[in-house]
């Protein structure tokens, strides 16, 4: 009986969100592949560069997303989303550094 309740709960509350995310991930990875292919042969527009940087950060966790955002900011230094992403990355890196360097005199801001 508990298993049936859990199954019903999952189907009603979790499955729709999971399916939506799965569909997004499939479409986003196709878009990422198309953008990477296009970038190999021609310069991308600003919006395409933004999408490429954002999707690479999302789906290529072993790649550094910083150069992608920097490429966007070279074309448009006021690009709000790229500036926010850059700030988020820099903050994450400084927190990471502070965690490992704390007490060693390297970075004691935290």
Number of beta strands: 0
Strand content: under 5%
What is the H/E order? HHHH
Q: Could you name the ranges where pLDDT drops below 50 across 5 or more consecutive residues?
A: 105-110
- N- to C-terminal distance: 50 Å
In DSSP terms (H or I, runs of 4 or more residues), the helix count works out at 4
- General form: extended
The helix content, as a percent range, equals over 70%
Gyration radius from CA atoms, angstroms: 20 Å
Report the structural category: mainly alpha
**Mean pLDDT, all residues:** 87
Task: Sketch the major β-sheet.
Answer: none
Keywords, separated by commas or semicolons:
mainly alpha
Overview of this structure, please?
The relative contact order is 0.07. The longest helix has 40 residues, at 2-41. The chain is built from four helices and no strands. The protein is extended, with a radius of gyration of 20 Å. It is mostly helical. Helix 2 (46-59) packs antiparallel against helix 3 and helix 3 (66-75) runs antiparallel to helix 4 (80-101).
């Amino acid at each position: 009986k508990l298993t049936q309740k859990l199954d019903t709960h999952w189907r009603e509350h979790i499955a729709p969100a999971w399916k939506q995310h799965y569909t997004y991930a499939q479409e986003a990875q196709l878009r990422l592949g198309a953008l990477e292919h296009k970038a190999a042969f021609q310069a991308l527009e600003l919006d395409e560069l933004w999408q490429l940087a954002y999707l690479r950060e999302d789906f290529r966790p072993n790649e550094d997303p910083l150069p992608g955002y920097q490429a966007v900011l070279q074309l448009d230094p006021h690009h709000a989303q790229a500036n926010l992403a850059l700030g988020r990355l820099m903050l994450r890196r400084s927190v990471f550094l502070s965690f490992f360097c704390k007490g060693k005199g390297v970075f004691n801001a935290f």
